[in-house]
Amino acid sequence: MGKIHTYKSKMLSLKKLKQEIMKTINKIFISAVIIVVMGFVASCSKSDGTIGTDNPKNSPDGKSGSTARIIIKGDYLYAVDNSSLKVVDISTPSNPSYVRSVEIGFGIETIYTFGDYLFIGSNLGIYIYGLSDPSNPNQLSQFEHFTACDPVIASDTLAFVTLRNNNVCNQWIVASREIDVLNVKDIFHPYQLVNYIPQFDPYGLDRLNNYLFVCHGTDGVVVYDINKMIAGYGNAVISTITGITAFDAVIWQNKLFVIGESGFYQYDYSDIHNISLISSILKNQ
Amino acid sequence: MKKILIPVILAAMIFSCSKSTPSTTYEEGLKPVYISKANAFNLKVETPTTFTYPGKMFLYQSLILVTDVGEGVHILDNSNPVNPKKIAFISIPGVNDASIKNGILYADNFTDLVAFDISNMSNIQFIKRLKNIYPLINQLYPEFATGYFECADTTKGYILRWEKSTLTNPKCYR
After folding, report:
1. Are A181 and A190 contacting, i.e. CB atoms less than 8 angstroms apart?
2. Architecture of domain A31-282
3. Nearest residue on chain A to B111, judged by CA atoms?
4. Domain range holding B119?
5. Is the predicted pLDDT of residue B39 greater than 80, yes or no?
6. Which of B99, B146, B149 has the highest number of chain A CBs within 10 A, making it the mutation to test binding with A?
7. Percent of chain B surpassing pLDDT 70
């Protein structure tokens, strides 16, 4: 009996190993719009509907979307190409000067900033760079998407990543989509809090307090309850905007701005359960 | 009658087969859209126009930038959110993203970063070009896609984008 049992459990662990390997391979090939939205979690009751210091914002009078490839922080402009980060000094705005290129890795797609950090999204993971010398960002840590899921833990500093696979080399790979919530409180050791599986492929996103606004392409925009996402139970979906194609969303001046294939839209979210369109400019207008 | 019919049918079959052997195949795939190398770096401040490939946005005070991927940047005045107004379009071939600080708009133009002074909307001025800070985007095949595509011809200029198309006898596949 003992032998059979051992054999059985060996088979089980082999099966599990195989699953893990498949999962890893899967995730390696996930080509993602990787977007990092960063900030401090305010508790539910703290939502005051205004942009506080706890919410992402990369310049005092301007804000990029999560899918940006050019961002401005202080006296510097940071731009990513497929493999590197370009640093441009704009301290004299009318005379920008190129400073340097920093090699990062393959498949770089997006750049985001919060505090003294740059969050660079690639096909394989997130790279976090420090700006202690803003003219020469240095890598502090990275988070690879295929890192195993960790137990759900309460935290006060989070990053969010949306992942969707497109059709790069993946005819043989099961479709995959997820929203990763990372704990980046220790910026040198980010780890995954939860990988939330949304109903639709996620694209660009933004965050306001406990609300996460995620674009879902042809399936519009979904507002999620972050606490519920992290808790892993209950319906995390608060409300949805349908009938539009949405690629990126930005909260700015108490309004939600959305861009998609057919144009640009702005919404009033003061009633989060019933988000209403203020205006739009469509392609044919 | 039967004796004749069978060879006739067979002959007809063979004939029809041989007729279609130098066959034309049609495949759904991607085809490159080119811009001449001379026009690729030609920037123009224009009157407002319609969106073609709305891709990214940047919000700045009460302005909205909408990047028309590969085409240029739309500047919108959102001081009345109920009725946002297009105020200008800057034609920037190959553009992916744009940003503003202190009244200066920065955007990518293929291999270059370009800057415009937009502090006076009725007189937007080009101010500087930083040359060759970006590598040229892949000019050989469509990234992030698999399947058939029309082989790229670099003599036709730079590739602005890849468009879905029905291809005739496509020779390239990835």
Report:
1. no
2. 7 Propeller (2.130)
3. A81
4. 27-173
5. yes
6. B99
7. 86
